[in-house]
Amino acid sequence: MENFTYLNPTKIVFGKDTVKDIGKNLYKFGSKKVLLLYGKGSIKKNGVYDTVVNSLKEKNIDFVEVSGVKPNPVLTKVHEAIKIAREQEIDGILAVGGGSVIDSAKAIAAGFYYDGDVWDFFEGKAKPYKGLPIFTVLTISATGSEMNSGGVITNEKENKKWAFGSPLVYPKVSIIDPTVQYSLPRNQTINGGIDAMTHVFELYFDKTKNNDIMDEVSEGIIRTVMKHIPVLLKDPKNYESRANLAWSATLALNRINGTGRQGGDWSSHMIEHSLSAFYDVSHGAGLAVIAPAWMKYVYKEDISKWVRFAEKIFNIHDGTDEEKALKGIDKLIEFYKKIGAPTTLKKLNIIEDDLEKIANNAALLCPMGNMKKLEKDDVLNILKIAYE
Ligand code: NZQ
Ligand code: ZN
């Protein structure tokens, strides 16, 4: 196990009927006027918006709305919101939505105090030195953004979908009410589950040895997600399954699962981000295709880990190490097919001639990965494996 320090300052309020507690939490924090940030309107259809607004009104907390944050959120929206936040002199951000809204809130929070362009944080040209306090009401479990310090934004002019991170943007409080996810479209439940599983893969397959405790936790998260997605596809309002999936997704990327490791691999994510920089592909759907292709390309770097994965997740005990490792990856793809996730780039309607362009985009971040250091040609090879 590697040395580590761990601190996560986000307070989680989890469970049924907890959205109405947001006003109380903001009040305790001392917020007077917040930027209420949300997406394209699902919160108006499922009642979350009304509950949030009533809860703010009860505590006399003023708010200014910015809506229309899109999935794969963009920099221009972040710029627009920073401008409004400054003009309106808000003292905090309340993000109501999924990873896209919360990530935008993080960029706005850090950009609010910065004289230059917030994109500098993503390019590594500057570091946030102060951040507005962030509060979230999570409406889709997937990214873990509700309890971590990272954010991913697309600079649409430059086709760069990049991440930044700072301890200053951990949400202060996140409300996770699994019942608000009853209204999720089927594909978003699938995408969210796959994103959570892939966060675990990124950390689990990173060459660290003797971290049994976190490997067991990782396997537990993977098995839990795999158990509950199929239940939810038949019964979207199954509370226990929503709750198990929700907490699994948070635990997958609140850094606990990364403790004692070498930092994870993250190539599948970086390649997927390049894919969704050009195509409006849902993050989870892109990962369903890219992560297994990455596994096929790199498993020989640490075959014992893929043997363990096959044994612990799919009960595969027969065959040589090579056979077991490959069978485990095939079983994962089979599971993705069974739940209706795309498993090839072709199914995502990616044009084959664009693979080079996507690889070139990802190459801006090369060498990438820890399991195997990938260069541009490796990325292209992975995209070719993923194609059909
Ligand atoms: O826009 P609205 O109307 O809110 O609709 C959203 C959106 O269309 C909808 N939705 C959310 N909650 C709903 C709902 N529809 C009905 N009922 C509900 N309760 O779902 C769609 C997807 O929302 P989005 O926020 O984009 O999903 P997700 O949470 O998967 O976030 C994906 C983004 O996060 C980034 C991804 O790259 C992507 O841009 N990531 C962020 C990470 C982080 N901060 O740690 C790590 C991840 O690996 C990831 O890269
Ligand atoms: Zn992800």
From TrEMBL:
Residues annotated as signal peptide: none
SUPFAM superfamilies listed in its UniProt record: Dehydroquinate synthase-like (SSF56796)
Record's GO cellular component, any one? cytosol
Could you tell me the superkingdom of the organism this chain comes from?
Answer: Bacteria
PROSITE patterns hit by this protein: ADH_IRON_1 (PS00913), ADH_IRON_2 (PS00060)
Named from the GO MF annotations, one term is: butanol dehydrogenase (NAD+) activity
Sequence ranges assigned to domain Fe-containing alcohol dehydrogenase-like C-terminal in this UniProt record: 189-387
Keyword Oxidoreductase in the entry? The reply is yes
Its name, as the record gives it, is: NADH-dependent alcohol dehydrogenase
Keywords linked to the UniProt accession: Oxidoreductase
| Domain annotation Alcohol dehydrogenase iron-type/glycerol dehydrogenase GldA: ranges | 9-178
Quote the Pfam families the UniProt record gives: ADH_Fe_C, Fe-ADH
